[in-house]
Amino acid sequence: MRYRVEQLAAACDVSVDTIRYYQSRGLLPAPEREGRVAFYGEEHVERIRRIRALQGKGLTLAAVARVIEGDLEPVDVELAAAVAAARGELGEPSGDGDAPLTLEEFASRSGVPASLIEAVQREGIRLGVVVDGETRYTAADVETVRAALKLLEFGLPLPDLLALAADANRAMEDLADRAVELFDRAVREPARDTAGTPEEAAARIVEAFDALLPAVTGLVANHFRRVLLAAAEEKLS
């Protein structure tokens, strides 16, 4: 069966603009053309349904593209979905049920000029989540910058705070890379090698991720608090 773009949109319950956007991202094969009319086939229907199913699991279009191109193995799809959900790439609420915020909305909500937010991000300090190439901000980001404002209110110099935050970011990135490598070596690879089916492997990996993420982040936060207080106590002794 052949479809014009409007018919394809109706068959897949998406808008024509969505189909055009998928095409612009290289997610759909080119349609057949007869003169100025483009015709789509069942392969386009199946591809759109697959894209929507993967998006429904929480994957961004960038991750969807990796699945379609074969760069992300099927056993890792559920892990990618778990990571996306944890990062809030589906758009966690920004307060009062609102959608994720643009930079301008974030600046207005937090009371921090957009130029300062951009300066902070240039230092490598992570704010917001990237959704298909666009940065969006959440309630957690609003609370983060409000907490930073309190530091400024007590007289801590902004350049020194930015330098401290940049150093911390570099250290945390290195720690995160090592943690991910350890998870890959000690959890993901053994699960893939020993599980009876890809589904069983995926389930094991996601279960481990869901358990280890809060454990590791809590451990790091608590350890830093103890180290910080110990340093303060030593300074005062």
Structure in words:
The protein is mainly alpha-helical and 237 residues long. It is built from ten helices and four strands. The protein has helices at 5-12, 16-24, 42-56, 61-68, 77-87, 103-110, 114-122, 139-153, 158-194, 198-236; strands at 32-34, 37-39, 129-131, 134-136. The strands form two sheets. Strands 1-2 form a two-stranded antiparallel sheet. Strands 3-4 form a two-stranded antiparallel sheet. It is flat. Mean pLDDT is 87; it is low at 89-97.
Features:
5% strand; 237 residues; two-stranded antiparallel sheet; 10 helices; mainly alpha; 67% helix; flat
- Describe the strand arrangement of the main beta sheet, using strand numbers: 1-2
Percent of residues in beta strands: 5-15%
Number of helices: 10
Radius of gyration: 23 Å
Q: In whole angstroms, how far apart are the ends? A: 81 Å
Shape: flat
The sequence of SSEs as H and E is HHEEHHHHHEEHHH
Low-confidence segments, given as residue ranges, are 89-97
- Overall mean confidence score, pLDDT: 87
Class by helix and strand content? mainly alpha
